[in-house]
């Protein structure tokens, strides 16, 4: 008879040896190692796995599971073991070690085992218990930690990504996803996993940790698995659920902060500037616009970004904070992206909308205050003085005229300010206050300017202080009526046949003072007059002759004839 069968002989063989009870009446048990934690003790009817060495009193070995390289598995108390072993294993804990002395009448009796165990032999066993289970056992699930927020739990047909350490019940490790530096990714409830794991993952939250103890009949059963999982082994998995999703999932939106005043929401075709933190479901940061100190700028609904974000940014308000949870099939799919986004990863974006616009947006003008009896309003070529505060739509201050000693001055329609602000300053009364929203294509465009981010929508708070009527484009001075018939003679104040700069300046100032004409508005009228003189002094000799003096209307007429 093979040694492996010695202690598995049926009780009939033991019963044949009951004639001589020997010096011992019962099994002698020495519990020489008892683990501090004992969750379960062997009872009648339990299925067990253990290792042992079997010797005689003189120390001679007659059998050993270690020598065979395989544990012994069997059921306690049903007559499949010799009576002494059945009794000696009762009450053992996993990892407990015992010395057992089995008298002949509880072993192989007066017959023994031919060639291996002599008649009336007392047997000595050194046993370590490795596994205990019962056919009535159920899955044992212990929640080790769980996130405070859990909006959803795992259901059948979900795709899960999790880390695990797998051990036998005695603590022997057999596998770990951590050692592979990769999560285990699979569907739940579709037969891809052992039954116990299929059941043990149900109801988990992303970020939850569980201990799952699986009896053999819900694991690898009688066959075991390769060389690492013995037959009839209970398995212990320590599981961390990283994330999960369902192939039918859409995006999940959480509105963290929505401004009370939301006049407009983003739609397909809008260009959005936003900050974001991108994390995996376990909180691992994979990207952040804040770390670059620069917003992410893109059109939405046009395919420039992952489909989940294209959908997730629809309907945002300026200033809104929103969380967008994107399943992998609407993100980077099974392949992931780079070394920071694993395959099949669910992505979480915490988004702060800075501003958005549409390439066809006009300037938005809101009149905050308009004086009564406002009959005269600004036009192109008018010279205006105004105070302003300029900011981004998130409230970030950029510039303010109040930081300087005097208001801003500009001639409208001369490309001295951005187009959108120029439009916003038209048709204003002195004393009027406005809020002017300028989209980037009427502001500083995609490139931005010093202190102004690219593609930024600008908000101006404007107060018009004063205005002066302008002159047509290309003119520095215009007459309110017909110019004098003998203009040169009147301009030549000392009648010496030439007009130096001083005479010219005195004449122009007199015309303005008498209301006969007006200069192009400017903060420096002397410079305007000097420019006029320089234009008339054709040969730049410091004086104007009769031949040199020409009205601009006459010059324009001469140009027409030259073209003809």
Walkthrough of the structure:
- A hairpin with a 4-residue loop joins strand 20 (383-392) and strand 21.
- The longest helix is centred in the C-terminal third of the chain and has 13 residues, at 501-513.
- The strands form 6 sheets. Strands 1, 2, 3, 4, 5 and 6 form a 6-stranded antiparallel sheet that branches. Strands 7, 8, 9, 10, 11 and 12 form a 6-stranded antiparallel sheet that branches. Strands 13, 14, 15, 16, 17 and 18 form a 6-stranded antiparallel sheet that branches.
- This protein has 564 residues and is α+β, with helices and mostly antiparallel strands.
- Helices cover 13% and strands 31% of the residues.
- The protein has 5 domains: 28-133, Chitinase A, domain 3; 140-245, Chitinase A, domain 3; 252-354, Chitinase A, domain 3 (Roll), CATH 3.10.50; 364-468, Chitinase A, domain 3, CATH 3.10.50.40; 477-563, Recoverin, domain 1 (Orthogonal Bundle), CATH 1.10.238.10.
- One of its GO terms (cellular component) is endoplasmic reticulum.
- Residues 45-133, 157-245, 269-357, 381-468 form the PPIase FKBP-type domain.
- PPIases accelerate the folding of proteins during protein synthesis.
- It is found in: Endoplasmic reticulum.
- It comes from Lophotis ruficrista.
